[in-house]
Amino acid sequence: MTVAANGQRRSGGTPLLDVADLVVHHGQLxxxxxxxxxxxxxxxxxxxxxxxxxxxxxxxxxxxxxxxTTGTVTFDGANxxxxxxERRATRGxxxxxxxxxxxxSLSVEENLKVGATYARPGPWTIDRxxxxxxxxxxxxxxxTAQLSGGEQQSxxxxxALVANPRVLLLDELSLGLAPVVVQRIYGMLPQxxxxxxxxxxxxxxxxxxxxxxSRVHCLLEGRTTLEGPPGDLTPDRVEAxxxxxxxxxxxxxxxxxxxxxxxxxxGHGSAGPDGADHGGPPSGPPSGPGxxxxxxx
Length: 297
Ligand code: ATP
Prior knowledge:
The protein has helices at 55-63, 85-91, 108-115, 126-132, 149-161, 179-186, 189-193, 206-212, 235-243, 291-294, and strands at 17-26, 29-39, 44-48, 70-75, 78-79, 93-96, 167-171, 198-202, 215-220, 223-228. By secondary structure, it is of the alpha/beta class. The strands form two sheets. A six-stranded mixed beta sheet has the order 6-7-8-3-9-10, with helices on both faces. A four-stranded antiparallel beta sheet has the order 2-1-4-5, with helices on one face. The protein is globular. It binds adenosine-5'-triphosphate. Residues 26-27, 29, 31, 49, 51-57, 204 line the site of adenosine-5'-triphosphate.
């Protein structure tokens, strides 16, 4: 399924979300090292990368859950870098966190009501969520802890939608779910996009990301290694960027202001807030799926 044919949803003009030179530390660890990206209205933009690449840190920083050391997050023309997460939510930046983070002792409907706490006006209501996930209405009084992983993920998406986001941040939707369930959940994306949303997602399943995204952005140890529309990226280039296997072959746009060339991977740990190098290069490829995992089938 292609939600957004490669590049077609990328529009010119003003980006809805503009992340510039973002540096984020977790203590001494430089988790993001100068990340820039622009997400345009209506597109599906995917962040890919191995475990620990910084994908969740990036999404959480955009949502306001981490404060960057330097760099800016601009949303709809306004600098939101220092805004609290709930203030960002009321402006339309809403995240489905990794691991769902539902209130397991609350019912489906109670969880959806939580999502509506900072809701903007818009097309998404609890009823609308029930129309999309048809099983949900009759199980609305069930505690979410009793649901399957896929059902919980659907509730987490519903909870985000009832806030009426303008940009929906999806962190690892596929984590821990069977492929058929992942397909079913991603199958909802066209309905979501049809209501005017923009989607920025993090996905370790590279094939899945390439299927749904208009552009992908690969991170490795906090740095951009590749950026571009899937149609411009060969499997070799994506693998090289994902695993840090030297320079990736040409083409595409690395997003690092280097004239469209892929960015060589950074050394692990790089410099901390004090400018010191806190770690050497990794001894092997980052953990994550092997090449066959990147390109199943
Ligand atoms: P995964 O796919 O495993 O979730 P990721 O690409 O999302 O990985 P992050 O979770 O952003 O990567 O982590 C980036 C780096 O920052 C990792 O080295 C991780 O151990 C570290 N890290 C993440 N969150 C914290 C935290 N709260 N405190 C300290 N270090 C953290």
